[in-house]
Amino acid sequence: MATTSSPRKVDEVRQEANRLNSAARSANQLMEALTVLLNAKMLKYNWVGFYMMEAGADPPMLVLGKYQGAMTPHTRIPLNQGICGAAASSGKTVVVDDVKKDPRYLACSLETKSEIVVPVFVRGKVVGELDIDSHFAAAFADEDRELVEYCAQLVGKRLEGA
């Protein structure tokens, strides 16, 4: 069972995400601000980062962008690897309640227990994703999923305007 985030906290963070979006001068600045916000305000979110599709890479490759949390050895992820690769390949949000039980998981930290990865779309095409790890099992309930998807949508819309 997921350890639910308070609806009040999710609402507060969503409103702050809207303020950050209005204040950001670029998509890159917005991604940085969102990683800081989610990492600081959502206590179960222990690593928060964006992976973006590398333009022209063959094979297609996700490259680590702005993030908050411990360093990761996974700075480049092929689309056929990991939970990140699965989300980018399928274009669907992937929530893993127990990473030890998912063979796709690319171990970044022994402390990570659960993960959510949400694709970022520009004009219907996956251009990146928002990846969040938690030190808590089943950390991502429906309200968390909605919040993370909302943040990914803000970035996608900002990238469309770039």
Structural class: alpha+beta
Biggest β-sheet description: 6 strands, antiparallel
CATH C-level name: Alpha Beta
**CATH topology, anyone?**
Beta-Lactamase
Q: Which geometry do the CA atoms define?
A: globular
Unreliable residue stretches: none
In helices, the fraction of residues equals: 25-40%
What strand line-up does the widest sheet have? 3-2-1-6-5-4
Number of helices: 4
Q: Report the CATH superfamily.
A: GAF domain
Average of per-residue pLDDT values: 93
Structural Rg = 14 Å
Q: What's the SSE pattern?
A: HHEEEHEEEH
Distance between the termini: 40 Å
Total beta-strand segments: 6
What does this structure look like?
A hairpin with a 7-residue loop joins strand 1 and strand 2. A 6-stranded antiparallel beta sheet has the order 3-2-1-6-5-4, with helices on both faces. It is α+β, with helices and mostly antiparallel strands and 162 residues long. It has helices at residues 7-23, 27-41, 82-90, 142-160; strands at 47-53, 61-68, 76-78, 94-96, 114-122, 125-134. It is built from 4 helices and 6 strands. The chain has a single domain, classed as GAF domain (Beta-Lactamase, 2-Layer Sandwich), CATH 3.30.450. The longest helix is centred in the last third of the chain and has 19 residues, at 142-160. The model has no long low-confidence stretch (mean pLDDT 93). Helix 1 packs antiparallel against helix 2. It starts with 6 loop residues before the first helix and ends with a helix. 37% of the residues lie in helices and 25% in strands.
